[in-house]
Amino acid sequence: AMDRKAFDKNAALPSNKQKPATSKSYADPPPSIVSEPEDGGERYSIGAFLGKGGFAVCYEGSLARNGRVYAMKVVKSAMPQKKMEEKFRTELQIHSKMRHPFIVQFYRAFAFESSTYVVLELCPNGSVMDMFRKRRCLSLPEVRRYMIQLCAAVKYLHKRFVAHRDLKMGNLFLDHNMNIKVGDFGLAAMILSDKDAKRRNTLCGTPNYIAPEVLDKSKGGHTQKVDIWSVGVICFAMLAGYLPFQSKTQDEVYRKVQNLNYVWPKESESGNYIPEEAKDLVGRCLNLVDEERPDPDDIVEHPFFNMYDGCIPRQLDPSCRFNKPLWL
Ligand code: ADP
C-alpha cells in the first residue's frame, strides 16, 4: 500500500481558508497515531523526534501494518504566512516527482487533524553537517565518494529542469549505508527557459553557500548553475574543515563571495593534505561566471577522481560520522 499514487496537489495541502482552528502551539508533539484520510488508508505511529527545521518538525513514524519506519515531516496546516504556504506547495510538487538513489524518497503527503504529514525515506545517520561538526576535514576517499553521489543527484535534478537552490551540508542527509540523500526541496524551482531564469531573481539560499549571481540583482536571474556553486562550497568545506566564505556578518559573507575571496588552509595547519587537483576542481565550481562552471558530468570526470591514490570506498561505516576511517 505504499504504492506511489500520484500526489494530489490539492488534497493534503494547507488551505488558507482553513481557520487556524487550533490553540495548540507549534511545539506541541503530534498525536501518537496518525492516519491517512481515505478509507483503508495507512496508519502510522509516531516515534522519536528527529529534528526541527524552519517550519517543520520531523519524527520517526512506523507504518502500523508492517512496522516499516519513515521520517514524518509535520507541518501545521495554518501557516503564519502565505509565502510559507506557497513554498511548501512548491516543495511537495517538486519533491513528489523525484526518484533517485541519492535523493530522499518522497512517499506521500496527507492531512490529519490540523497538520500536513509528509512521509519520507528515513535517514538515520544525520546530515553531512553533523558529521562535519564532529570531524571537520574528511578524508580524500570520503570526499570523492560524497561528491560523486551528490553530482549524480544534481545531474538528475538538472536534467529535469529543477534547481535545488539550497544545497548545503545540512541538507545532505545520510542513510543507513552512509549514502548521501539530498533533501529539503523548500527552495527548489523549475527553471525551463531563459525567461524563467530572468524571473528567478529572488534572494534565496543560505548565505555561506549562495552563488554570486543570486546576490547581484542587476544580473537579472539565475539558473541551475547556482547548485554547482554550492557543490563547490560543500567540496571546499569537506576538504578544508571550514566554509570558504565564513564571516561574522552576512554582509561580509556576501562581499567575500562577490570578490571570490577564499583561502585554502596552509598544509601545516590542516590535518589533511589537499591535492592541487582538488583545489582546481573547487576553483572551477566557484567561478563567478555561472556558464563557465562545470556540469555534474564534468565534475566526476575531473582528474581529482582519477589520481593514483584516488580510491573511492564502496562502503562506509556509520562510525565515520564521528571518526576518521582507518584505511587499510
Ligand atoms: P525545514 O524544511 O523546515 O527546514 P527539514 O526538511 O530541514 O525542515 O527538516 C528538519 C529536520 O528534520 C532536519 O534538520 C533533520 O534533523 C530532520 N530530518 C528531515 N528529513 C529527514 C529524513 N528524511 N530523515 C531523518 N531526519 C530528517
Overview of the structural elements:
By secondary structure, the protein is of the alpha+beta class. Helices cover 28% and strands 16% of the residues. The protein has helices at residues 82-95, 128-135, 140-159, 194-199, 212-215, 225-240, 250-258, 276-285, 296-300, and strands at 33-35, 43-52, 57-63, 69-76, 106-112, 115-120, 162-163, 172-174, 180-182, 189-190. α3 packs antiparallel against α6 (225-240) and α6 runs antiparallel to α8 (276-285). The relative contact order is 0.12. Adenosine-5'-diphosphate is lined by residues 50-56, 58, 71, 73, 104, 120-123, 173, 183-184, 186.
Percent helix range: 25-40%
Structural class: alpha+beta
Q: Please count the beta strands (DSSP E, at least 2 residues each).
A: 10
Task: Describe the largest sheet.
Answer: 6 strands, antiparallel
If you average the pLDDT, what whole number results? 88
Proportion of strand residues = 15-25%
Order of helices and strands: EEEEHEEHHEEEEHHHHHH
Q: Looking at the structure, what is the overall shape? A: globular
What small ligands are held by the chains? adenosine-5'-diphosphate
Give me the number of helical elements: 9
Low-confidence stretches: 1-25
Strand order of the largest sheet: 1-2-3-4-6-5
Distance between the termini: 44 Å
Report the radius of gyration as a whole number of Å.
21 Å
